[in-house]
Design goal:
Number of helices of chain B: 10
Shape of chain B: globular
Number of helices of chain A: 13
Structural class of chain A: alpha/beta
Helix content of chain B: 25-40%
CATH topology of the largest domain in chain A: Rossmann fold
Distance between the termini of chain A: 53 Å
Distance between the termini of chain B: 60 Å
CATH architecture of the largest domain in chain A: 3-Layer(aba) Sandwich
Strand order of the largest sheet of chain A: 6-7-8-3-9-10-12-11
Helix content of chain A: 25-40%
Largest interface: A-B, 59 and 58 residues
CATH class of the largest domain in chain A: Alpha Beta
Largest sheet of chain A: 8 strands, mixed
Number of strands of chain A: 12
Order of helices and strands of chain B: EEEHEEHEHHHEHEHEEHHEEHEE
Strand content of chain A: 15-25%
Oligomer: heterodimer
Radius of gyration of chain A: 22 Å
Chain lengths: ~350, ~375
């Protein structure tokens, strides 16, 4: 059985302007020892999903429906006290900005020891401190016995992220969620941290969810990938399948719009036109259709019918798109052969009026 | 319509530049930030050597990419070029004017010619001002009355950057990040500057929007003949947008070359390591289809502090090729092949280097 099963998760926030559908029908499962990459732009619902799994929407106005099962135990509607017992022990999280996630007034050793003692009530202070030193050593901090008494400001950005990882792993969690763990870091340090996460995963056998906007990061570290757009899953499958045969025009757009070091330099980038939609007024039908270049081929279904993740292209790989599998294969073959997608030749910098704006 | 925006003529009295068609010419640029101790008797106890002697020049209509990790001094360099900060030493000549030590009042007329695009489109636009006020501010500050009036010029600028003239009375919060960045670009273009320093112009934007803004910057350059200095940490973006690329490490230039030369054959070990660390959106697989880890040069540790940079070659503490000479003698930025300068005793990808073809991994 999979360690984590998420079924039809919906997380909605009522606001004065309307209902914000941050997550709207997301399903995935994750085995121990595997890494799932959740990719999407800001506002795609990737962070809200992970906070939902960690039970961190408790106390907000969030309306959560659907199922989250960790090791068979239902969490979405569980008692907050029970979720608190699991959080930090069985599931742990690393955040994007290590400086604002660490308390500036406390020594890093004390912060790690605190995380340990909350879940090991019988541990003595000395044991907890030793655990902190061991964990700092484990994440590659030189002289851990000395650095344990340092404050967060005495560490560099990469070292702080290592401290965060040490804290997250000090109770041997089975599920580790890393929300943009390397976005605030330099590329050389990012490479170190990604390697560290994979090494520790191999050692502890935990399941990892890595949330990022960077397709390069998921290509490097993820076994499976979930591409999200406007709170909905756009494409889900094994990493190799998604990079070899992406099946959703949004994924194509992401891949085509990135300047890439591993390819010949293109004279011009092919951006995705328009901007991501407001989550209060998600377009009817496929949420991506106002920005999609292929809506002509489906006879108007894109505008009216919400596509679901069905009709697997290969086992375990599905895209929420009305194009047929054959159409997708043809379009992707054309794109990867370097053809410019329809409509991309026109100047794309004439934009429509902002969608999420306040009407005046 | 784009060519008709009412453009003020910059002040006259320009002298010929030191070398032909270089719009920007920088020699020996230094900026040290003093570190002081004590409140009453302030003693200087050291200096953060943010920029420590760099030479650059950018030809008209070209783009120079300035790359490096955080703390390498690239943003300070940008602030010096736009004279938002005063250099400790060196010389900056823009379009024939020596601007190195101009006072703010003397600098003001030149601000028409040098403008900046900022990283964060959220904090660089005043939330209480309308788009019209924001984009029109340069005209008011410079007391310029463009033909047709300020409003008309602002609307033309909005159209130029791909926004609609009807956005004139809207506020920044009504726009997405990419659109805000376009507003910032419109403001930058208001006075038709010659030189634009863009500090991480797309790094705060979503991937799908980055490409739109990069294309816009390129179109504007073609249309208006702009000269760019683009400061960025993303090597793929820099390759796309630049004609020449300068790589900075701890306040110094370590490599300077044309884009194609630099990316085809990076010479400085730091550049090589940086390039190998860029995550590529393509999983690596071995012959039998299994996932593999990408071959990558892992630099140990973090960049050292610019407060106390390592002696001689500043990269020697993290370099896998470092030998004794690297710790004692500073390598000068020298041309290894025409148009390709590198500051290294043992550059990569050269014929003389035994390691060039074979082992590039750290020992």
């Amino acid at each position: 059985m999979a360690l984590l099963e998420v079924r039809d998760l919906r997380i909605h926030f009522p606001t004065d302007d309307g209902l914000v559908k941050s997550v709207d029908g997301v399903s995935f499962s994750l085995e121990r020892g595997r890494t799932l990459g959740i990719v999407g732009e800001s506002g795609s619902g990737k962070s809200v999903t992970s906070l939902g799994i960690m039970g961190l929407h408790h106390g907000t106005k969030a309306r959560i429906t659907g199922e989250i099962r960790l090791d068979g135990e239902e969490l979405a509607h569980a008692d907050p006290a029970r979720v608190r017992e699991l959080r930090g022990a069985k599931m742990a999280m690393i955040f994007q900005d290590p400086l604002s996630s660490l308390h500036p007034f406390y020594k890093v050793g004390d912060q790690i020891a605190e995380a340990y003692r909350i879940h090991h009530r019988k541990a003595t202070g000395k044991q907890a401190r030793q655990r902190a030193i061991d964990m700092l050593a484990r994440v590659g901090i030189p002289q851990p016995a000395v650095r344990v008494a340092d404050y967060p400001h005495q560490f560099s950005g990469g070292m702080r992220q290592r401290v965060m990882i040490a804290m997250a792993l000090c109770n041997d969690p089975e599920l580790l969620i890393a929300d943009e763990p390397t976005t605030a870091l330099d590329v050389t340090v990012q490479a170190q941290i990604l390697d560290l996460i994979s090494e520790l995963q191999a050692e502890f056998g935990s399941a990892v969810i890595i949330i990022t906007h960077d397709l390069g990061v998921v290509a490097q570290i993820a076994d499976d990938i979930l591409v999200m757009y406007a709170g909905r899953p756009a494409e889900y499958g094994a990493a190799a399948d998604i990079f070899d045969r992406p099946g959703h025009p949004y994924t194509w757009g992401l891949l085509a719009s990135m300047p890439r070091l591993d390819r010949e330099r293109q004279s011009r980038l092919v951006p995705i036109p328009g901007t991501p939609p407001s989550l209060i007024r998600v377009p009817p039908g496929c949420p991506f259709h106002p920005r999609c270049r292929y809506t002509g081929a489906t006879g108007g279904r894109c505008q009216t019918e919400v596509p679901v993740l069905s009709e697997p292209m290969t086992p375990g790989h599905a895209a929420a798109c009305h194009l047929t599998v054959a159409q997708r294969a043809r379009e992707w073959a054309a794109l990867s052969a370097g053809q410019v997608p329809p409509g991309a030749g026109e100047p794309d910098n004439r934009e429509p009026v902002p969608q999420g704006g306040v009407e005046t | 319509m784009t060519g008709q925006i009412g453009m003020p003529q910059a002040g006259s009295g320009r002298t010929a530049g030191p070398d032909g068609d270089a719009l920007l010419h920088v020699t020996g640029l230094v900026r040290h930030f003093p570190v002081t101790r004590g409140v009453v008797f302030r003693q200087k106890v050291g200096a953060v050597r943010a920029v420590d002697g760099i030479d650059l020049s950018v030809a008209k209509g070209q783009t120079l990419g300035l790359v490096g990790e955080s703390g390498c001094g690239k943003t300070t360099t940008g602030r010096l070029l736009t004279r938002l900060d005063e250099p400790t030493g060196g010389r900056i000549v823009i379009d024939g004017y020596d601007v190195t030590h101009l006072r703010p009042g003397q600098m003001r007329p030149l601000r028409r010619e040098i403008q900046m695009i900022f990283q964060d489109p959220y904090s660089s636009l005043n939330p209480r001002h309308t788009v019209g006020a924001i984009v029109g501010a340069p005209f008011r500050l410079q007391k310029i009355r463009p033909p047709g009036g300020i409003k008309r010029s602002v609307q033309e600028l909005l159209e130029l950057v791909g926004l609609s003239p009807e956005h004139y009375n809207r506020y920044p919060h009504e726009f997405s990040g990419g659109q805000r960045q376009r507003i910032g670009i419109a403001r930058t273009l208001a006075l038709r500057p010659k030189l634009i320093v863009a500090d991480e112009p797309v790094s705060a934007l979503d991937v799908s929007i980055q490409a739109q803004v990069i294309n816009l910057l390129e179109d504007l350059q073609d249309e208006l003949g702009l000269t760019y200095v683009v400061i960025a940490h993303d090597l793929s973006v820099v390759r796309h947008i630049s004609d020449h690329v300068a790589v900075m490490y701890l306040g110094k230039l370590v490599e300077l070359a044309s884009r194609d030369q630099l990316y085809a054959r990076p010479r400085h070990p730091y550049t090589v390591a940086l390039m190998s660390a860029v995550p590529v959106p393509e999983p690596v697989r071995s012959a039998d289809g299994k996932r593999e880890r990408r071959q990558r040069i892992r630099l140990a540790g973090d960049p050292p502090s610019p407060l106390n940079p390592p002696p001689a070659c500043r990269f020697h503490t993290r370099c896998w090729k470092a030998r004794d000479i690297c710790r004692t003698e500073e390598p000068a930025l020298a041309e290894v092949v025409p148009g390709h300068q590198v500051a290294c005793h043992f550059p990569e990808n050269t014929a003389q280097d035994p390691a060039a073809s074979g082992d590039r991994r750290p020992a």
